[in-house]
Amino acid sequence: MKSFSLANSLLVSLRIYRALLVAYPKKFREHYETQMVQVFRDSFCDAYRHHAVFGVIDLWLHTFLDLVSTALIERISERSRYMFSPKIIVWGGMASVFGGLMWLSPVFTGKGEITLPLALLLTLGGLAALHARHGKQAGTLGWSGFILGIFGTGLLIPSFFMQDTAPGLPFDLGMPILSIGSILIGIRTLQTRILPSASGMLLFAIGVSQIGLAISVWLMDYYLAPNGIDPWNPMTIPAIATLLLLFAIGIFWIALGAILAQNPGWETSNQPPASA
Amino acid sequence: MAETAYDPKTLLPLTPAAFHIMLVLTDGENHGYAIMREVAENTQGKMRLGPGSLYGTIKRMLADGWIEEADERPDPQLDDERRRYYRLTSVGRKLVQAEAERLEQLVSIARGKKLLRTPRSV
């Protein structure tokens, strides 16, 4: 009678437990479902043998709490893995390449009212992809750089549409903020070694070039124009510097985007393991 | 995953579950249920790993290269052939050793503050 009751309750418990395992992500179930059911079955037999019904009740309580908490953890970790999937990083790399081309276009067309805001948006996509690539290793430096990048871009984009009605303060503030953000992400990229070191150097070069661009535009707005000199006169040093720096930033972003698009994965021999 | 040349101390402290599982595996390869039972025995029942926390931790330790699945299966007549056996990698062994040393240091600090009795000399 006792063995019949054990077999019966074991069978029912196993069915219920197996059904409850749907709480875990599919991938996790594919790998561990059989093992988990087996461990539960062994635990059940042990609990029944030593403490009969009370042992089974205690096992169920403990197993249920364990299932709820760990299923939640696995779901969250699955979701964060999806958010930072290699596909998103490839798209970020492509956005950086197109962003770089947009940075180059004013050099050849002489007009940047539309292309430069677009360039800033696309390269923000690149910064986001880099941040995603850092993942858990972003640290304070990576996070600060990313937040400054968003804030700087947020200030810069409207500045292109209010140029005639307001002074260039959003530009004057936005460009240095974005530059510092780029430099910080560059330093973090070099520290973590998740990408070839050239990518960190490129981000550093982009940041420095953007600071140079901010200075040259500032000289054009606050020195040349008030003195009656055409700020875009190609014979003036600030105008030449602005064009050269736009060109450099464009090339740097294209190169960085190409590196990012080619290195979307997580598995690199230099990457330190995350803690279990 | 390739084993890394990182200083294990940078990965400390380990989570209690990871440390206890690795402690069990220092004696040799073992399967999930045996690991679970030995952890409960080693902690006098204070740490009870459920199947979810056991395999969640195992999953992360496998991904980080601290443990690996043993290729050899035991004789099917002696054990269930569906069981998977796990063992420490050399990275895992260094890590569990570093964690044990860290805990030893903490104990010696606690002892210095007279929070613990000094061990009797044999």
Structural class of chain B: mainly alpha
Major sheet summary line of chain A: none
Number of strands of chain B: 3
Oligomer: heterodimer
Q: What's the helix-strand series of chain A?
A: HHHHHHHH
The interface involving the most residues is between: A-B, 33 and 37 residues
Strand content of chain A: under 5%
Mean pLDDT of chain A: 84
Q: What proportion of the residues of chain B form beta strands (DSSP E)?
A: 5-15%
Number of helices of chain B: 4
| The level-1 CATH class of chain B | Mainly Alpha
How much helical structure, as a percent, in the residues of chain B?
A: 40-55%
Q: Using only CA atoms, what is the Rg of chain B?
A: 16 Å
The computed structural class of chain A is: mainly alpha
Please give a structural write-up.
The complex is a heterodimer of chains A (about 280) and B (about 120). Chain A has 8 helices and no strands. Chain A has about 280 residues and is an all-alpha fold. Chain A is rod-shaped and about 100 Å long. The C terminus of chain A is likely disordered. Chain B is mainly alpha-helical. Helices cover about 50% and strands about 5% of the residues of chain B. In chain B, helix 1 crosses helix 2. A 3-stranded antiparallel sheet of chain B has the order 1-3-2. The N and C termini of chain B lie far apart (about 45 Å). The longest helix of chain B has 23 residues. Classes of the chains: A mainly alpha (about 280), B mainly alpha (about 120). Chains A and B meet through helix 2 of A and helix 2 and helix 3 of B.
Task: Summarize this structure as a short list of keywords or feature phrases.
heterodimer, A: 276 residues, mainly alpha, 2 domains, 8 helices, rod-shaped, B: 122 residues, Arc Repressor Mutant, subunit A, 4 helices, 7% strand
